[in-house]
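Recap slide: Alpha/beta hydrolase, sequence and predicted structure.
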Amino acid sequence: MTISRVLALTLTALTLSAAPSSAAAPALDWHPCGIPGQECADLSVPLSYGDPGGPQVTLAVSRLAGTDPEARRGTLLVIPGGPGGSGVKRLSQQGEALRRELGSAYDLVSFDPRGVGASSRARCELPGEDRHLVTLRSWPAADGGIAENVERARRTAQACADNGGPLLRSLSTLNEARDIDRLRAALGEEKLSAYGVSYGTYVGAVYAQKYPARTDRWVLDSNDDPNPRKVARGWLANMAVGAEARFPDFAAWAADPARGNLRLAERPEQVRELFLSLAADLDRQPRATTTPGVPLTGNRLRQAMQTVLYNDTSFPQLALLMRQAMDPAATPVLTPDVAGPMPDEDAAITMAVICNDVRWPNSVPAYERSVAENRARYPLTAGMPANITPCSFWKDAPTEKPVRITGEGPSNVLMVQFRRDPATPYAGALKLRSALGDRARMVTVEGGGHGVYLGQHPCADRLVTRYLVTGERPARDVVCD
């Protein structure tokens, strides 16, 4: 690509809604790949849908084809979460479970979004210390100060501006929806069915809003708040409420005498007090861990807590880490997601999508006030959900307005949601349910975690599977005990 071409793209809006996303989409050339039972292909999509004949980026696509052509009704697209999640990886993890549940009703297809995994990758060239989850999430200092967060946010935004190039500037939820429609056309499908999880629910909702006539059976699991004024800023803020709603599940588990050596207290409320006290102690005096140069700080304990709350099966990890932190003779062991840096491309796409989707406020004093209020109200997350991020200093303004989700379109969406979800809280899911109106029905599971379907919740699994296989959807919203 010539320098003049790059400059032209840089100065031109990268995503224009007027251009049809599926124009001249080539058929996919499937071939065996290193994923057992699956086929892979590459799909070229425009870097800019305002210039569909210009530079292209490559999306990695994978398929687990149905084995009974007579039973086939179409393609089920697995929309990955994130932003920054790999659909190819997710299909390799969940494909066989989906096949057992759905039979041969669908070819199961997923993809790595632009910038991710085996697709054309985006990079910011961030140093390792700035790619740790505990720094990307902008946890405040032990005293609640955010000066270090502000400095890192400025540094990160500048690095992405200097090194990201046109690809990084093209990353957005709207462009992912357009890429999906390009994929639909390449698959030869008039309509797609979909199963989106977490951020994939927002992508799915945006696609269903933009291309309603091209949706068949649409399942959204663990749902994001669609507020078009905030988008990811609202998702981050909701994490404070989510942690407070979900932590009692861990506390009850850790107070159960059946936990043996992992029992932390006699009563659940004591587990909460212990966690807050331990985090404060680690703020003042971090503990060395088995990972050289990576101490267990109060914020790493909080980040570990937030991750563990996604699934009950992870509760022993947090209980063990707390036990180790309280034992002077023990050396705490951090899980890889807490101990090590994220790959540069993962960090880049996560930030680029949320920063490119909508403009974020940039008043440092306003963030200082918000963090102080948030720490007092939601002590488990210590102000992180209200803190500043690189988006406040992002160099490129969003080129398009976020999509407003409405009830216009076919009534073909089935939402499924935990009552106590730490990452995409119930209140946000209710806002999406309200926005979709009669387009949707919602299945609420009386439990906690993130990601319902295929997670051993028979009532919800049965309702989702029945809808995808037969088209029979609940007549009204349902609560599963």
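Residues 130 and 136 are 7 Å apart (CA to CA).
The chain has a mean pLDDT of 93.
(End of recap.)
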